[in-house]
């Protein structure tokens, strides 16, 4: 017996990365990778086991059983699961979906529970409890209760509104109807009442309510066409096909009602493209796969009706299994704000402890010997100090701003609406406004350092257009659009009115019929494809597997070779007005390995021809007479011509990229397209220029290998040393770009998949072997981490990075690496389902409502219709949001410190007895009414420069990237500013009251008058301070500042009136204080002096900084009128795209997925008797993209 220890080898370890190949699928498993190795010869036991598994697929854990038309079947004990103690529930979910969080009974308790999980809310709840203890509190309970209730109430209303929207959405979906068999008849039933095992009927253009097994349809062979845009973002049609036995016997309503088949399949999972199961019916078993399943979220297209059996319902469906929790995203300012709140709490505890110690000392020295201070409590000085510690925690609680979080949410909410309302981000062609899908990330839009963008549909329009062709050496379509008239296709009744072409010579050649190669060329385009045709309202419509294939067939249609229809074994074409039908013998479909597709047809004359089109590189090698690849069906092809298909850039892409680059934002393009296509787009959108030095995968690998060897040499022999080299990879200041493929990315980042050898016997490892294995793994991980870090450092030295041929998983991996090693704020933008992973991984995800469905939009944080709107989102809304939030936070902390620290200075004059310097009601309303509105409006409306100047001067954006406006330095400056203000607010009135005399000869030097004077000074100072901080004045701002001051005096006079004191004598004790104190002129002079000393230094400092050390925004604001005049004359420079390389661009006009050939050329679709493929002697081929080839040959009909 041969035994092997555990060992691992790298998948295709010795192979060189292939730039043309997309790396392994993200969904491949280890077994699938193993099974795909051609080098492994299966032994006899393996072969027999595979054969056995293919005969009985239920061996693969098919524990999910579904019986048709039998609800009692699911009541068996084996289908129950315990949910709590002895309570059991069916393991089969109902079809109703639930995305809401609350119902009328659970809303209040659940919402309060969630809110009190937040540290700030729980902190104030504890304070409220402490305030109910009379021994320690000197502050009334309502001073904390009122702000807390306000915060909880606003948050609860917001949560309630969101949940009501979710309820409405759920009800709209759950109350949709479809036909379900009940009591032997089809009856209209709501989606929420559908159950597993039900037989349902779906009609054209309706959504599929659950994951169902297709039983039959109105189409031949029970085909069913579905659109999966809601599932995977792709708008092209896909087909499903029922089992032959169900197609034959389950067409009538009575037969469907009597159907009693049993399906055994896999448990519910999130694999959209996989399904394994068996249908047992009439003593026979039939294997099931994903092609027999219609998934919830898809839409029935081009099929009048279909019947199906519900397999998975509700939460068990694959779309619901894929809708996992979205990653919770927080802004950088959020994290910083939380740390600052923790800093304030620590500072509060230290201050309270210090003041409590002061009270203990004061009690020992003065309190015990002062008989008039005796309170009938014989507490020791230490115990009194302990009680005062908690008293000061209560008194100084306003240092922790309870209204901070709710104010931030209000500001973000308003900023989100400004984005939604921005008409300059509205895309009228598709009636698509910009949409802020989250309200928590707005200010982070002003701090972006890296943008990761998809290409197709994001930078480009994803609308393919036939532009040029070359047939028999003659080029067509070279005419300049601006100099020539559009070709008139009115002679062709099938012409597509949207198709534009400007070369009249080609039309003349086609009509003359003198060039047979031209006729063959367009005949090939009309017959060699997998497009589906559909006629609606007299219009011929095409459904293609990819936009580029649709463009080729549409071009042939306009030039007189019109694809009309197809069956399983024929295709009908109108050739210059003459309809002909051809027998389709076989279709060799396109895939990413073949890079071509072929079709074999029999003409009416009996001749058999092969027509092929594909990538130029693949077609060329099959034209060579010494071609070593002996493929009987696709060799020795005669070249007919080539095509050029254009996927235009979206409007404004080069300008947008240029502006974002000037804002010091680095742009990386991550795409699944081939290297040449991605490079061409890089030049088109001006990411790359003629002066750019391009570094490819092999160059990158060599540089990283050299760096790693140098690092190992420097680290020495110690395995724990990790020295980082800081010198750059590239010398000089030359503009550089990196272009790397997915295969090279896996090679460089050591992300290639592993395969494990099949082991016959395992021996237990010794402790020494385990230690060696652990050390080996640790070293491998350290090596991998260092290599990835080096790659990120190298890539970030380049001005632009283009990753091509990458999978969705690799896109997300690249974003994660930059986040991990650069600690940079990232944004990902895309339009398709393959971008969802990247969008969710980045700090901010942006979805474009494009040609590939809504999957990216649904997963994004922001969405709009065109890439060019990204510059406005970042440079205008993002920058403004960041500036506003930073200004709001700095001021908010300042006003709270200025307000609260007055209590500390007052403590030195009251024996540290935790007495308050203000009236209780002033403390209650200060943050709620007296100082809240002006700062909220600054957070919502302020702007340092206009939107046009923000776009014209992108360098203004750099402030946010460098965190210059809000950081710990700014926080401590706000603290210092607040402390100085509190000193002035306290000691100037204190000095004035020491030697004062009123007009009536009395000295109003009492505590209550002092409290009113200090409070009034504070209200003036903080409101005028926000006025100084306001850059953009409107009537609303002015009204809020002066209105807040007026509101303070109005409420204060009311609260100090005799009437309210009579009603509530214990709650309102400052009776007559404000009227008496504020009629003394010298008190107003005292307040004016306090305000002047607080604000005049700030005015002087602002003046000097703007004069001597002006910011970029200050300079622009100063010259804004001049810029406004220039703006009216300024025009965008013309894009000069020149590139000194060969005009040949290699690409091919196919999607990276298979087309409809499985349907058209399946065993059930091809005629049983036909000529063998090896009887074909010659054929035709065409390459498309920038190059395509076609050819033709004849052979005898041996069929």
UniProtKB/TrEMBL annotation:
Residue span of region Disordered: 1-62, 761-780, 1176-1199
One GO MF term: ATP binding
Presence of keyword Transmembrane: yes
Cofactor(s) listed in the protein's UniProt record: Mg(2+)
Superkingdom of source: Eukaryota
GO biological process, one term: phospholipid translocation
E.C. number(s) listed in UniProt: 7.6.2.1
Major place of residence: membrane
Cell location: Endomembrane system; Membrane
Composition skew (Gly residues), residue ranges: 1180-1192
UniProt feature, compositional bias: Basic and acidic residues: 47-62, 765-780
Entry binding sites for Mg(2+): 454, 456, 831, 835
Membrane-spanning residues: 142-161, 339-362, 389-408, 888-909, 921-941, 971-995, 1007-1026, 1038-1062, 1082-1100
Similarity annotation: Belongs to the cation transport ATPase (P-type) (TC 3.A.3) family. Type IV subfamily.
Name of this chain's protein: Phospholipid-transporting ATPase
């Amino acid at each position: 017996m041969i035994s092997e220890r555990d060992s691992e080898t790298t998948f295709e370890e010795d192979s060189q990365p292939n730039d043309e190949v997309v790396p392994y699928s993200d969904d491949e498993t280890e077994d699938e990778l193993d099974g795909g190795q051609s080098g492994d010869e299966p032994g006899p036991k393996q072969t027999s086991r595979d054969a056995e598994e293919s005969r009985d697929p239920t061996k693969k854990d098919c524990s999910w059983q579904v019986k048709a038309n039998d609800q009692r079947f699911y009541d068996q004990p084996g289908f129950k699961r315990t949910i709590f103690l002895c309570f059991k529930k069916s393991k089969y979910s109902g079809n109703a979906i639930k995305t809401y969080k609350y119902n009328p009974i659970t809303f209040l308790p659940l919402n309060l529970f969630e809110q009190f999980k937040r540290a700030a809310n729980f902190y104030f709840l504890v304070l409220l409890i402490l305030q109910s203890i009379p021994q320690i509190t000197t502050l009334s309970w309502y001073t904390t209760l009122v702000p807390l209730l306000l915060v909880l109430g606003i948050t609860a209303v917001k949560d309630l509104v969101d949940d009501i929207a979710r309820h409405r959405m759920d009800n709209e979906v759950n109350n949709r109807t479809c036909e379900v068999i009940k009591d032997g008849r089809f009856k209209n039933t709501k989606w929420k009442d559908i159950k597993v095992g039900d037989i349902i009927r779906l009609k054209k253009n309706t959504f599929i309510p659950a994951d169902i097994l297709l039983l039959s349809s109105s189409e031949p062979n029970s085909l069913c066409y579905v659109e999966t845009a809601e599932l995977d973002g792709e708008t092209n049609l896909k087909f499903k096909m029922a089992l032959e036995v169900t197609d034959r016997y389950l067409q009538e309503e009575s037969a469907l009602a009597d159907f009693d088949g049993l399906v055994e399949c896999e448990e519910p999972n999130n694999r959209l493209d996989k399904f394994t199961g068996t249908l047992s019916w009439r003593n026979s078993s039939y294997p099931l796969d994903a092609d027999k399943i219609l998934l919830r979220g898809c839409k029935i297209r081009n099929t009048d009706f279909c019947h199906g059996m519900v397999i998975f319902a509700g939460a068990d469906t694959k779309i619901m299994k894929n809708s996992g929790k979205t990653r919770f995203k927080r802004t950088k300012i959020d994290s910083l704000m939380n740390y600052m709140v923790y800093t304030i709490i620590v500072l509060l505890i230290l201050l309270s402890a210090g003041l409590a110690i002061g009270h203990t000392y004061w009690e020992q020295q003065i309190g015990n010997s002062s008989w008039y201070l005796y309170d009938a409590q014989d507490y020791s000085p230490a115990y009194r100090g302990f009680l005062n510690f908690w008293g000061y925690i209560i008194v100084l609680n306003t240092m922790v701003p309870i209204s901070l979080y709710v104010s931030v949410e209000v500001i973000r909410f308003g900023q989100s609406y400004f984005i939604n309302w921005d008409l300059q981000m509205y895309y009228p062609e598709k009636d698509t406004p910009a949409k802020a899908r989250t309200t928590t990330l707005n200010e982070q839009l002003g701090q972006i350092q890296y943008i990761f963008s998809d290409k197709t549909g994001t930078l480009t329009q994803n609308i393919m257009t036939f532009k040029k062709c070359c047939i028999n050496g003659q080029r067509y379509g070279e005419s300049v659009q601006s100099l020539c008239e559009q070709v008139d296709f009115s002679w062709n009744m099938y012409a597509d009115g949207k198709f534009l072409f400007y070369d009249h010579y080609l039309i003349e050649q086609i009509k003359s019929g003198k060039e047979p190669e031209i006729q063959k060329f367009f005949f090939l385009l009309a017959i060699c494809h997998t497009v589906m045709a559909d006629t609606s309202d007299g219009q011929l419509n095409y459904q293609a597997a990819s936009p580029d294939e649709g463009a080729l067939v549409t071009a042939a249609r306009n030039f007189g070779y019109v694809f009309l229809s197809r069956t399983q074994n024929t295709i009908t074409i109108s050739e210059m007005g003459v309809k002909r039908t051809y027998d389709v013998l076989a279709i060799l479909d396109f895939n990413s390995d073949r890079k071509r597709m072929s079709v074999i047809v029999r003409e009416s004359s009996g001749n058999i021809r092969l027509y092929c089109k594909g990538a130029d590189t693949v077609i060329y090698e099959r034209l060579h007479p010494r071609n070593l690849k002996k493929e009987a069906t696709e060799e020795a092809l005669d070249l007919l011509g080539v095509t050029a298909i254009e996927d235009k850039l979206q409007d404004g892409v080069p300008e947008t990229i240029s502006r974002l680059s000037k804002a010091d934002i680095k742009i990386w393009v991550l795409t699944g397209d081939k290297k040449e296509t991605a490079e061409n787009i890089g030049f088109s959108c001006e990411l790359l220029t003629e002066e750019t030095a391009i570094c490819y995968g092999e160059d990158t690998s060599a540089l990283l290998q050299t760096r790693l060897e140098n690092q190992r040499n420097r680290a020495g022999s110690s395995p724990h040393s990790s020295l980082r080299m800081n010198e750059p990879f590239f010398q000089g200041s030359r503009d550089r770009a990196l272009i790397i493929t997915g295969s090279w990315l896996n090679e460089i980042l050591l992300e290639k998949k592993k395969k494990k050898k099949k082991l016959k016997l395992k021996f237990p490892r010794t402790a020494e072997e385990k230690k060696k294995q652990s050390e080996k793994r640790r070293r491998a991980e350290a090596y991998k981490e260092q290599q990835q870090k080096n790659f990120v450092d190298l890539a970030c030295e380049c001005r632009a990075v283009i990753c091509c041929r990458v999978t969705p998983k690799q896109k997300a991996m690249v974003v994660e690496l930059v986040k991990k090693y650069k600690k940079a704020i990232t944004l990902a933008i895309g339009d398709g389902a393959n971008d969802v992973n990247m969008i969710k991984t980045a700090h901010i995800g942006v979805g474009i409502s494009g040609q590939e469905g809504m999957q990216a939009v649904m997963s994004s944080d922001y969405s709009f219709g065109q890439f060019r709107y990204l510059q406005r989102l970042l440079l205008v809304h993002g920058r403004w949001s960041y500036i506003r939030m930073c200004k709001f936070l700095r001021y908010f902390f300042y006003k709270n410190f200025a307000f609260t620290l007055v209590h500390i200075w007052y403590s030195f004059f009251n024996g540290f007895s935790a007495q308050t310097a203000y009236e209780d009601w002033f403390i209650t309303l200060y943050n709620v009414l007296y100082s809240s509105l002006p700062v909220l409006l600054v957070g919502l409306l302020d702007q340092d420069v206009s939107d046009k100047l923000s776009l014209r001067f992108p360098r203004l954006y750099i402030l946010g990237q460098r965190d210059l406006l809000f950081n710990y330095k700014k926080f401590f400056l706000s603290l210092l500013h607040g402390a100085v203000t509190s000193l002035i607010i306290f000691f100037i009135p204190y000095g004035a009251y020491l030697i004062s005399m009123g007009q009536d000869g009395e000295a109003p030097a009492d505590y209550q008058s002092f409290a009113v004077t200090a409070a009034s000074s504070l209200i003036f100072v903080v409101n005028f301070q926000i006025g100084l901080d306001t850059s953009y004045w409107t009537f609303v701002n002015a009204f809020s500042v002066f209105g807040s001051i007026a509101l303070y005096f109005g409420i204060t006079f009311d609260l100090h009136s005799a009437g309210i004191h009579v009603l509530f004598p214990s709650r309102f004790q400052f009776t007559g204080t404000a009227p008496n104190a504020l009629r003394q002129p010298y008190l107003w002079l005292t307040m004016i002096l306090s305000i002047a000393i607080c604000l005049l230094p700030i005015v002087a400092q602002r003046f000097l900084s703007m004069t001597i050390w002006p910011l970029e925004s200050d300079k622009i604001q100063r010259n804004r009128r001049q810029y406004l005049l220039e703006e009216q004359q300024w025009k965008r420079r013309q894009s000069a795209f020149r590139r000194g390389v060969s005009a040949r661009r290699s690409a091919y006009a196919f999607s990276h997925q298979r087309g409809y050939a499985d349907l058209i050329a399946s065993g059930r679709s091809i005629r049983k008797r036909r000529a063998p493929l090896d009887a074909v002697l010659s054929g035709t081929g065409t390459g498309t993209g920038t190059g395509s080839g076609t050819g033709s040959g004849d052979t005898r009909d041996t069929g």
